[in-house]
UniProtKB/TrEMBL annotation:
Lineage: Eukaryota, Metazoa, Chordata, Craniata, Vertebrata
Alphabetical GO biological process terms: apoptotic process; negative regulation of apoptotic process; regulation of signal transduction
Pfam families assigned: FAIM1 (PF06905)
Localisation per UniProt entry: Cytoplasm
Physiological role: Plays a role as an inducible effector molecule that mediates Fas resistance produced by surface Ig engagement in B cells.
Name of the protein this chain belongs to: Fas apoptotic inhibitory molecule 1
Domain of life: Eukaryota
Keywords annotated in UniProt: Apoptosis, Cytoplasm
Organism: Gallus gallus (Chicken)
Protein backbone atom coordinates (compact mmCIF):
# COMPACT_ATOMS: atom_id res chain seq x y z
CA UNK A 1 0.00 0.00 0.00
CA UNK A 2 1.52 3.32 -1.09
CA UNK A 3 1.82 5.90 1.65
CA UNK A 4 -0.03 9.08 0.90
CA UNK A 5 2.29 12.07 0.99
CA UNK A 6 0.90 14.80 3.16
CA UNK A 7 1.36 18.32 1.86
CA UNK A 8 1.19 21.28 4.17
CA UNK A 9 1.18 24.77 2.80
CA UNK A 10 1.92 27.86 4.78
CA UNK A 11 -0.73 30.58 4.89
CA UNK A 12 1.52 32.62 2.57
CA UNK A 13 1.70 29.79 0.00
CA UNK A 14 -2.06 29.31 0.09
CA UNK A 15 -2.61 33.04 -0.28
CA UNK A 16 -0.24 33.34 -3.25
CA UNK A 17 -1.63 30.19 -4.88
CA UNK A 18 -5.23 31.39 -4.66
CA UNK A 19 -4.74 35.16 -4.56
CA UNK A 20 -6.07 35.66 -8.09
CA UNK A 21 -9.36 34.01 -7.05
CA UNK A 22 -9.55 36.01 -3.83
CA UNK A 23 -8.88 39.24 -5.72
CA UNK A 24 -11.72 38.63 -8.15
CA UNK A 25 -14.33 38.04 -5.45
CA UNK A 26 -13.62 40.89 -3.02
CA UNK A 27 -12.77 43.80 -5.35
CA UNK A 28 -15.58 46.29 -4.67
CA UNK A 29 -14.30 49.63 -5.98
CA UNK A 30 -11.81 51.10 -8.44
CA UNK A 31 -11.04 54.80 -8.77
CA UNK A 32 -8.71 56.77 -11.02
CA UNK A 33 -7.25 59.90 -9.47
CA UNK A 34 -5.42 62.49 -11.60
CA UNK A 35 -2.64 64.16 -9.63
CA UNK A 36 0.24 66.30 -10.88
CA UNK A 37 2.59 63.30 -10.96
CA UNK A 38 0.18 61.13 -12.97
CA UNK A 39 -3.12 59.30 -12.96
CA UNK A 40 -3.22 56.82 -10.08
CA UNK A 41 -5.45 53.75 -9.87
CA UNK A 42 -6.86 52.94 -6.43
CA UNK A 43 -8.46 49.54 -5.90
CA UNK A 44 -10.30 48.41 -2.78
CA UNK A 45 -11.14 44.89 -1.67
CA UNK A 46 -13.70 44.39 1.08
CA UNK A 47 -14.57 40.93 2.35
CA UNK A 48 -18.04 41.43 3.75
CA UNK A 49 -17.95 38.09 5.58
CA UNK A 50 -14.42 38.35 7.04
CA UNK A 51 -14.23 42.13 7.18
CA UNK A 52 -10.98 41.95 5.20
CA UNK A 53 -9.81 45.29 3.76
CA UNK A 54 -7.09 45.62 1.13
CA UNK A 55 -6.06 48.84 -0.62
CA UNK A 56 -3.92 48.86 -3.77
CA UNK A 57 -2.40 51.98 -5.32
CA UNK A 58 -1.18 51.48 -8.89
CA UNK A 59 -1.33 47.70 -8.39
CA UNK A 60 0.82 47.75 -5.22
CA UNK A 61 -0.74 46.54 -1.97
CA UNK A 62 -0.39 49.26 0.67
CA UNK A 63 -2.93 48.20 3.31
CA UNK A 64 -4.10 44.72 4.26
CA UNK A 65 -6.29 44.01 7.28
CA UNK A 66 -7.72 40.54 7.80
CA UNK A 67 -10.67 39.57 10.00
CA UNK A 68 -12.06 42.95 10.98
CA UNK A 69 -15.18 42.65 13.11
CA UNK A 70 -16.36 46.13 12.25
CA UNK A 71 -17.44 46.11 8.59
CA UNK A 72 -17.89 49.88 8.30
CA UNK A 73 -15.25 52.56 8.86
CA UNK A 74 -12.43 54.14 6.90
CA UNK A 75 -8.94 53.48 5.57
CA UNK A 76 -6.53 56.40 5.12
CA UNK A 77 -3.33 56.28 3.03
CA UNK A 78 -1.25 58.46 0.70
CA UNK A 79 -1.06 58.57 -3.10
CA UNK A 80 1.64 59.81 -5.45
CA UNK A 81 4.98 61.55 -5.13
CA UNK A 82 3.52 64.44 -3.13
CA UNK A 83 1.91 61.98 -0.65
CA UNK A 84 -1.64 63.25 -1.20
CA UNK A 85 -3.96 62.06 1.60
CA UNK A 86 -6.72 59.68 0.50
CA UNK A 87 -9.49 58.07 2.57
CA UNK A 88 -11.89 55.30 1.60
CA UNK A 89 -15.14 55.50 3.58
CA UNK A 90 -17.11 52.29 4.05
CA UNK A 91 -20.77 52.87 4.93
CA UNK A 92 -23.63 50.40 5.34
CA UNK A 93 -26.49 51.28 3.01
CA UNK A 94 -29.02 48.58 3.92
CA UNK A 95 -28.74 45.03 5.18
CA UNK A 96 -25.53 43.66 3.69
CA UNK A 97 -25.07 46.37 1.06
CA UNK A 98 -22.16 48.79 1.42
CA UNK A 99 -21.22 52.08 -0.19
CA UNK A 100 -17.58 53.02 -0.80
CA UNK A 101 -16.54 56.64 -1.28
CA UNK A 102 -13.09 58.06 -1.89
CA UNK A 103 -11.95 61.39 -0.44
CA UNK A 104 -8.82 63.19 -1.55
CA UNK A 105 -7.41 65.77 0.89
CA UNK A 106 -10.69 65.69 2.83
CA UNK A 107 -12.90 66.39 -0.22
CA UNK A 108 -15.07 63.99 -2.20
CA UNK A 109 -13.31 62.82 -5.37
CA UNK A 110 -15.81 64.81 -7.50
CA UNK A 111 -15.23 68.05 -5.51
CA UNK A 112 -11.47 67.49 -5.51
CA UNK A 113 -11.38 67.04 -9.30
CA UNK A 114 -13.62 70.11 -9.84
CA UNK A 115 -11.31 72.19 -7.66
CA UNK A 116 -8.25 70.69 -9.35
CA UNK A 117 -9.49 71.75 -12.78
CA UNK A 118 -9.44 75.35 -11.47
CA UNK A 119 -5.94 75.11 -9.97
CA UNK A 120 -4.15 73.10 -12.68
CA UNK A 121 -3.85 72.83 -16.46
CA UNK A 122 -3.11 69.49 -18.11
CA UNK A 123 -1.86 68.72 -21.59
CA UNK A 124 -1.35 65.28 -23.14
CA UNK A 125 0.91 65.00 -26.17
CA UNK A 126 3.05 62.57 -28.11
CA UNK A 127 6.64 63.40 -29.05
CA UNK A 128 8.71 60.97 -31.08
CA UNK A 129 6.38 58.07 -30.25
CA UNK A 130 6.40 58.73 -26.49
CA UNK A 131 3.29 59.98 -24.66
CA UNK A 132 3.71 62.85 -22.23
CA UNK A 133 1.35 64.32 -19.63
CA UNK A 134 2.31 67.88 -18.69
CA UNK A 135 0.65 69.48 -15.65
CA UNK A 136 0.92 73.11 -14.51
CA UNK A 137 0.05 73.86 -10.88
CA UNK A 138 -1.17 77.44 -11.22
CA UNK A 139 -0.72 78.41 -7.55
CA UNK A 140 2.99 77.47 -7.42
CA UNK A 141 3.75 77.54 -11.20
CA UNK A 142 5.34 74.07 -10.76
CA UNK A 143 5.43 72.06 -13.98
CA UNK A 144 5.22 68.25 -13.91
CA UNK A 145 5.88 65.89 -16.81
CA UNK A 146 5.18 62.15 -16.56
CA UNK A 147 5.48 62.17 -12.79
CA UNK A 148 8.57 64.35 -12.47
CA UNK A 149 8.75 67.96 -11.37
CA UNK A 150 10.54 69.84 -14.15
CA UNK A 151 13.36 72.35 -13.86
CA UNK A 152 11.86 75.59 -15.17
CA UNK A 153 12.98 79.12 -15.96
CA UNK A 154 10.48 81.98 -15.78
CA UNK A 155 10.68 84.93 -18.13
CA UNK A 156 8.63 88.13 -18.38
CA UNK A 157 7.53 88.95 -21.92
CA UNK A 158 5.56 91.82 -23.43
CA UNK A 159 2.07 90.36 -22.87
CA UNK A 160 2.64 88.12 -19.83
CA UNK A 161 5.08 85.43 -18.68
CA UNK A 162 6.69 82.32 -20.12
CA UNK A 163 7.79 79.32 -18.08
CA UNK A 164 10.46 77.45 -20.06
CA UNK A 165 11.45 73.79 -19.68
CA UNK A 166 12.43 70.93 -21.95
CA UNK A 167 11.08 67.45 -22.58
CA UNK A 168 13.79 65.28 -24.09
CA UNK A 169 15.31 67.44 -26.84
CA UNK A 170 12.11 69.46 -27.30
CA UNK A 171 11.93 73.04 -26.06
CA UNK A 172 8.66 73.85 -24.31
CA UNK A 173 7.13 76.79 -22.54
CA UNK A 174 3.85 77.67 -20.90
CA UNK A 175 2.66 81.14 -21.80
CA UNK A 176 0.52 82.96 -19.23
CA UNK A 177 -1.54 85.84 -20.62
CA UNK A 178 -4.34 87.82 -18.99
CA UNK A 179 -7.70 87.08 -20.60
CA UNK A 180 -8.85 90.62 -19.88
CA UNK A 181 -11.95 89.09 -18.26
CA UNK A 182 -12.16 88.83 -14.50
CA UNK A 183 -13.96 85.46 -14.46
CA UNK A 184 -11.50 83.78 -16.81
CA UNK A 185 -8.36 85.21 -15.20
CA UNK A 186 -5.10 84.11 -16.77
CA UNK A 187 -4.97 81.87 -19.82
CA UNK A 188 -2.16 79.29 -19.88
CA UNK A 189 -1.00 77.84 -23.20
CA UNK A 190 1.58 75.09 -23.74
CA UNK A 191 3.91 75.63 -26.71
CA UNK A 192 6.17 72.74 -27.81
CA UNK A 193 8.59 73.30 -30.68
CA UNK A 194 6.64 76.49 -31.58
CA UNK A 195 3.38 74.49 -31.80
CA UNK A 196 0.39 75.12 -29.48
CA UNK A 197 -0.85 71.98 -27.69
CA UNK A 198 -4.59 71.75 -26.89
CA UNK A 199 -5.46 71.34 -23.21
CA UNK A 200 -6.67 67.91 -22.07
CA UNK A 201 -9.85 67.41 -20.03
CA UNK A 202 -9.41 64.93 -17.16
Amino acid sequence: MASREEVTLSEEEVRSRYSHLEKMTDLVAVWEVALSDGVHKIEFEHGTTSGKRVVYVDGKEIIRKEWMFKLVGKETFTVGVSKTRATINIDAVSGFAYEYTLEINGKSLKKYMENRSKTTNTWVLSLGGTDYRVVLEKDTMDVWCNGEKMETAGEFVEDGTETHFSVGDHSCYIKAVSSGKRKEGIIHTLIVDDREIPEAVE
